[in-house]
Amino acid sequence: MLREVGKLLELPARFVDVTIYRVESTTIVMKDGSAREVSTGESFGACVRVLRKGWGFAYASSARELAERAEQALRGAELAGERVELAEVEPGRGRAEVRARLHPSRATLEEKLEYLHRASEAASGYARVVSTSFAYSDASVEVTYLSSEGAELSMRYPRVAFHAQVFAKEGARLQFATERAGATSGLEVLEDVEVLAEKACEKAERLLRAKAPPSGEFKVVIDPKLTGVFIHEALGHAVEADHVVQGESILGGMLGQRIASELVTVYDDPTLEGGFGSYFYDAEGVRARRKAVVEQGVLRSYLHTRETAARLGQEPTGNARAQGYSYPPLPRMSNTYLAQGDSSFEELLEDIEYGVYLLGSRGGEVDTARGVFQFSAEEGFLIERGELTTPLRDVALSGETLEILRRVEAVGSGKEVHIGYCGKNGQLVAVGDGGPAIRTIATVGGTS
Amino acid sequence: MTPREALRFIERRGAEGEVYRLRQRHFSVEVRRGRVELAEAGAEEGFGVRVLLGRRMGFAYGNVLSEQLLERALSVARVSPPDEHQGFAGAESYPSVEGLFDPRVEALALEEVEQRVEELLAPARDRGVEVSQASISWEVSEESICNSFGVEAEQRGSAVHAHLSAVARRGGEVATGMHFSAGRSLDLNFEEVGEVASTLARRSLGAKRLETGDYPLVLRPVAMAELLESALIPAFSADNVQRGRSRLAGRLGERVFGEELTIIDDATLAAGLESTRFDGEGTAGRRKLLVERGELRGYLYDVYTARKAGTESTGNALRNGFSSLPRIDATNFIIRGRGTLEEDALVVHGLIGAHTSNPVTGDFSVETRNAFYDGSPVRKAIIAGNIYELLESIAGFGRDVAQVYGVVTPSVGFSKVRVVG
Description:
The structure holds two protein chains of two kinds. Chain A is of the alpha+beta class.
């Protein structure tokens, strides 16, 4: 396949690149103690981008079909309304590989199943837990990237994930809770599946007793998991440079300006070892690197593809990512986290007369142009006179980017980066989100 | 090898088999900053194979149907636990469904789409708003399925999608509007997509905050669909019902919603986006009454859950590509009701974060997108409540029925929701 697809680099265009993916994956879902869905397989495919006036993009799962689609894409590339330019980069050459201690391609299905049995066993001791789902998934990915500028890269990495979802019931009340773990590494990251299963069960049982949250504007303390989602939604999407270029980011034209409290420093780091959103080179063959997005409250960098970097006259950042061979690259986050501060957890709470402490994430979404975002916590507690009191459920927060970032009043110590999945323009990619616990002010959307 | 040959190979190993094949061709033209920037042409083909060894089910996928792929499925089956409910669909006749395939979609070349792009973009120019992103995409798919029990089916389908995001500016103020539409044929109204998005952006300028409190609510079709997908549809899955994860479990025949409301899942809807002659297991697509005037009438089954319940599959085992197992989901989830709509309410076009709703309890707390109160735009407002309570308090239905993803619904009015301004 490589030789046939490699010929496409000679297509008549200003720039051509070709990416070949081979992915082997296994998914196992254990439902209520029985492995009901076991699936495994392998897929390959390749895509080619041609730059004439604008972009043509073609993909296929066979070389012959790809050549045919590439011809169509070449003609399509002339439809563009404006000439697209690319920022210059040193064409990457070489090989890179994540070497896992327990590589998924070397583990048997029985060994993979064993993690789920262990989780299921750990969950069996909870009287109110009525139903459990535990899922294991892995992917062994091989990517080859070639460009008409001479880039020639090959990358191999495994990615594994574990998801727990448990349901607890008491009388007519039914609640669920989740936990997950994952990394760009081998099965060694799944050592604690029992602990995750137990945490999920305890949380689901707690939620049975939890009350609906209050509504209105409050001081809130959010845990590291939720800090990650907060940074991802409130800040991260708005610094993706396609939004900036398209005039749909509230942070457009604000580089070098103060946009957040000076306690806020945020990094995007695809080189984080084992991070769920880690990679060696981005989808355009640009070397991955850590960059400060915000430094002490000042906006320092957007997240670029080569095209957006050229458009804004800035340095490429290595943030072009694609879900797979059937998707063109877009500017995306990798592992995005808030740098730690120096407040202890008690200090975050201590002078709050009445507020809300929020834990765990159920995801979020943002309108980058208006800077309005929403994200949802798995559980919470009221804070009364600096103490955690009543447990809360279904707590959602919303806010406006520029307001809430300025209102970050305290940043905790420590840092955790958790696994996440980020959806944009129909493409889902693995990301890491994290930080320490923080305190800010936000709108809590309760029903009381 | 052909799917028939694959079945014979599996059967010679003392197993039963099912071979699913999907071939798709996809095209799109993407507009950024008001101009075409990228044109895409793609094709994909693959196979998903299930084997049943005794009562052990195994699944494997790949781009090529080979002995290696079949061996892989067999080795998965060997490590899977035996389960008496595992099984395949039997042969039956399939309904003919109108409007699944438009040959004009298959024939459309990338360079022929310029006129339609122009129709999509023109309304934004006329209204003085910017187009941040827009796209037109179209695809043609061919699916086939066969199994050891005589199922043999194939179908072709086409789809066309259009979307546009508009940004309106006045002074330092920014407002956005987004709209999309999808259908099976090339007759999609591209102009309307551009017009709705642009008008929403324009009308949303000058937004003010709303006082926190309880308000009557109208959800436009997009907002209704977003909320139902996350907070309600999972409750109809027989898998969730059987595993005690659904609030609708054990309530067949009871009144669960307001009696104005009827819900139908219809795989045979003419030109429906989710219409299908057969599901991902080869069971015939059909029309099912789920809720009749507020009373619960049925759930959505695949072969596994139907065997467990001693009933028949409803044809709701849907495939999301060739590389994953069929899963229970609604096809065209149709909302019908009586009564007219009072627009004297908080009118919400779309939601931000609907997917964070609680699929078990039905609780939701989501930010609004393009919300209006008394005709004036609302700056930022969370609506919070519970889908089961909301559907008990229906105030009326509009006449603007639209298909949004898999949901077919008009605007729906509710007597009260919590709004956090």
